[in-house]
């Protein structure tokens, strides 16, 4: 069962984004009287649209949610630049509207932008129309700031229902969750975040971290873990790629 926590963000909810590799929470039923599909079942049924990892090659994609954040996003960008790694950042529209200069920096430094909704809702409890509004509202903001509409969508908390996946498929989007969860939203220290990632990475992994937090939360441990995660995996022969590179898809619609 998904557990949420509350923080005092003015618009955006915050909460743990449960590890998609083990999450079996069922999604909203598409039609009355039918049993909703689990996330695992949705991934199997819509395997070309709903992704949580890439091919089994020695590549890893680092992803960072809940950006842009004036406190943590610059720190994450600084660490990635030092290591020469490009990542994928999932943008909350309300934050991009407030901090367009940070979104421009992410784009300027060669990272990929994805869509993480406008207000960070729990999508599985929302209608297709509400889902569509959240996605399109955010992509208009992103396009206005950096010039393209992202093809990649990450639902907040990793939760989505079948009707929403169908809509995404029909309109050429990819839903991208993860198979490695750093659990950094818990405010963990560097050593714990590093261990959470390194112990779970396999070829083709998509790693979830955050570069934005709520009021009073800290991601210092996650930021500090970035160099060790990268250096350790490189020593094992892994290469770091963006999600479009890993999934062999386009970044924009």
TrEMBL record:
One annotated GO molecular function: hydrolase activity, acting on carbon-nitrogen (but not peptide) bonds
Keyword Hydrolase applies: yes
One Pfam family from the record: Polysacc_deac_1
Region feature Disordered, mapped onto this chain: 15-36
InterPro entries: Glyco_hydro/deAcase_b/a-brl, NODB_dom, Polysacc_deacetylase_ArnD
GO cellular component, one term: membrane
Name recorded for this polypeptide: Polysaccharide deacetylase family protein
Organism, scientific name: Paenibacillus anaericanus
């Amino acid at each position: 069962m998904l557990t949420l926590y509350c923080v005092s963000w003015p618009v955006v909810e915050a909460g743990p984004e449960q590890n998609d590799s083990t999450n079996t929470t069922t999604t909203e039923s598409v039609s009355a009287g039918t049993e909703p599909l689990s996330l695992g079942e949705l991934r199997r049924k819509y395997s070309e649209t709903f992704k949580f990892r890439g091919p089994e090659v020695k590549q890893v994609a680092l992803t960072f949610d809940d950006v842009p954040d004036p406190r943590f996003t610059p720190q994450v960008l600084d660490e990635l630049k030092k290591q020469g790694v490009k990542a994928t950042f999932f943008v909350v529209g309300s934050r991009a509207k407030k901090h367009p200069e940070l979104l421009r920096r992410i784009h300027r430094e060669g990272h990929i932008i994805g869509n993480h909704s406008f207000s960070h809702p729990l999508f599985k409890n929302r209608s297709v129309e509400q889902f569509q509004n959240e996605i399109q509202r955010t992509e208009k903001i992103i396009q206005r700031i950096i010039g393209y509409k992202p093809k990649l969508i990450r639902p907040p908390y990793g939760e989505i229902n079948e009707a929403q996946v169908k809509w995404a498929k029909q309109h050429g989007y990819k839903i991208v969750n993860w198979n490695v969860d750093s659990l950094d939203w818990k405010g963990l220290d560097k050593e714990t975040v590093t261990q959470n990632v390194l112990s779970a990475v396999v070829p083709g992994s998509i790693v979830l971290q955050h570069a934005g937090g709520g009021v009073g939360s800290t991601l210092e441990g996650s930021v500090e873990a970035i160099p060790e995660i990268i250096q350790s995996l490189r020593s094992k022969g892994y290469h770091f790629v963006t999600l479009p590179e890993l999934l062999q898809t386009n970044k924009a619609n």
